[in-house]
Amino acid sequence: MTNKPWETLSQTEIKELQEVFLNWYDKHKRNLPWRMNTDPYRVWISEIMLQQTRVDTVIDYYYRFMETFPTIAALAAADEEKLLKVWEGLGYYSRARNLQAAARQMTEAFAGAMPTTVDEIASLKGIGPYTTGAIASISFGLPEPAIDGNVMRVVSRLFEIEADIAKASSRKVFDEAMRVILPVSAPGDFNQALMDLGSSICTPKNPNCPECPLNKFCRAYQDDKATDFPVKTKKTPPKPVYYAAAAIENTKGEFWLVQRPENGLLAKMWTFPLLELEEKQYQNLKKDFAKDEPQQTELLVAEESDAEYLLPFENSDIIWQKRHLGEVTHVFSHLKWHLLLFYGRMKGDGSPQGFPGQWVAKTDFATLVFPKPQQKLVEQLDKNRGDNKVF
Ligand code: SF4
User: Fold this and answer.
1) CA of 44 to the centre of ligand 1 (A)
2) Considering the entire predicted model, what is its pTM?
């Protein structure tokens, strides 16, 4: 048997598969805001938002984004801070920055519009093969496959493809299979049908094969092997990183916030000061300053002389609460942050040393761009600090 089963399909079978599937899509397609028309700007923004993010989460962000930046020109001209604010909470912030960079490329090189050829679309910042395929097929009717994890799952089952989907090199196998079954007459609908099937019927754990419009053509279903596909090697788990996070308040009720560097993870976003620790140090702090230790049921304040010993932020002008306010974790694609939150109060009018930043009133937090871990820290602060004010 060939290891490329799509090569054995006759033209009649391919045509039948396409017709059955497109009819199914006509009846069952999801009613999503970006599908109101095939405008490339809408398709592009929605596809970038949908990377790594669930449809339910994206919908509100999508409306807000289109309202704030209704055109490529508006996006190109946007203030970066405002752009990140609209994106706040959606994660993977480089996506937002790349959107703007691509909008500027369009302004400079393509008369302010989305280019119309596959190579030109693929030349835009942040637009990889999947998004290129989605825009080219949906907006311009070009016969380009749009292959993401959902599509690889469906296609691997259809043809019992054993290529490891965790490897970038496997992509060409799926590309080849897709180019055989993709109809030239309706490539956009066919790609979207695959996306919908992958999210509603051909799901990772319990594919609903009896209801699937493709079951007649699906090798994995016929061999009762649907859940053996796709083949995927395990990813290396994200590397743990440990931080003490400091919520430092002054006498005016303002908190000290620092801005992250220009480049790298969460670039230019605002957080409480974070101090990286060894795992052992972190675990010791977590144990020694556990909030539920009996002798610490009341809010205890560290003696000034204890401050350096007790907590990893060296600044004698800060009085630290002698317990931590709990732990927050956040998983990025390659890192897992563990953050142990401490609360300190600044004496006098000074500022914390060693963490360049600024005082910000709590009521003004909404004006800054907070990444998800910082949002979780603020929630933790509100939850565990309680009304027990000693200062
Ligand atoms: S028959 Fe089952 S495994 Fe095959 S494509 Fe449909 S849902 Fe997926």
Assistant:
1) 28
2) 0.77
